[in-house]
Design brief:
250 residues; 5-stranded mixed β-sheet; two-stranded antiparallel sheet; 25% strand; globular; Ni_insertion
Length: 250
């Protein structure tokens, strides 16, 4: 079984997921071609960057629209009218529905009445759709994730100044192992939290696996820690309970 393990030592965001997937071997052109099935205007660019001396890939989603607020129904229409595979559509809508439920809880409203602000913008839609489609293109069958490093402090959004992690992120990460090292920055975005909380099968230590590739997706900020999301891709080993003494070098 082909699996992916996300190491969230600097949190997680949608663009970092895209960068990690591309860095691990996903073709940027293949991802672009898949996302063109959404029939919305966008472009993707990638470049190599260094974060605290460690290289990774930064993927940038380029869109021309201004600040647009969308409801879940608008996003559902974009996804359902696309030519994406049925499973990909289903998983994308699972992510957006979970995000809408978190926002509805925070703002004391209904799922269909939720106004997506930053997440309703086309770049965030591409981030989420690209994350789901990219994992499918790589043939990932199961997803694992480390405990998630969350930031602290405050950030400014459409509603004003709010504490970190953002309230929607807190809702999305309920029941998931998290920790903080006091980094004063938004390490986990609603987009990243929605994707990983929806798609991940298990949170904890890396499973017993035969590693085939790995990649690092870069965030925007320069932090005291490497602002990178690492993904390890490989085959899940079925004999994970065997005594590691059987393996030379252990």
């Amino acid at each position: 079984m082909k699996i992916a393990y996300f190491q969230c030592s600097a949190g997680i965001s949608g663009d970092m997921i895209l960068g990690a997937l591309v860095d691990a071997g996903l073709s940027l052109e293949a991802l672009k071609n898949e996302l063109m099935k959404l029939k919305v205007p966008f472009d993707l660019k990638s470049r190599r960057v260094l974060k605290n001396g460690i290289s990774g890939t930064k993927v940038q989603v380029i869109v021309e629209e201004g600040h647009v607020h969308r409801h879940l129904s608008h996003i559902r229409a974009i996804v359902q009218e696309s030519e994406l595979k049925g499973k990909v559509k289903k998983d994308i809508m699972r992510v957006f529905t979970n995000l809408a439920e978190a926002e509805a809880k925070v703002h004391n409203t209904t799922v269909e009445a939720v106004h997506f602000h930053e997440v309703g913008a086309l770049d965030s839609i591409i981030d989420i759709c690209g994350s789901v489609a990219g994992l499918e293109l790589l043939g990932i069958e199961k997803i694992y994730c480390s405990p998630i490093h969350i930031g602290t402090g405050f950030t400014k959004c459409a509603h004003g100044i709010i504490p970190l992690p953002a309230p929607a992120v807190v809702q999305l990460l309920r029941g998931i192992k998290v920790y903080s090292k006091g980094v004063k920055a938004e390490l986990v975005t609603p987009t990243g939290a929605a994707v990983i909380s929806t798609l991940c099968d298990d949170f904890g230590e890396i499973p017993f696996m035969s590693m085939e590739s790995c990649g690092c997706g870069a965030g925007d900020r320069e932090l005291e820690i490497p602002n990178l999301l690492r993904i390890c891709i490989g085959q899940l080993e079925q004999n994970e309970n065997r005594d590691l003494a059987e393996y030379p070098g252990e």
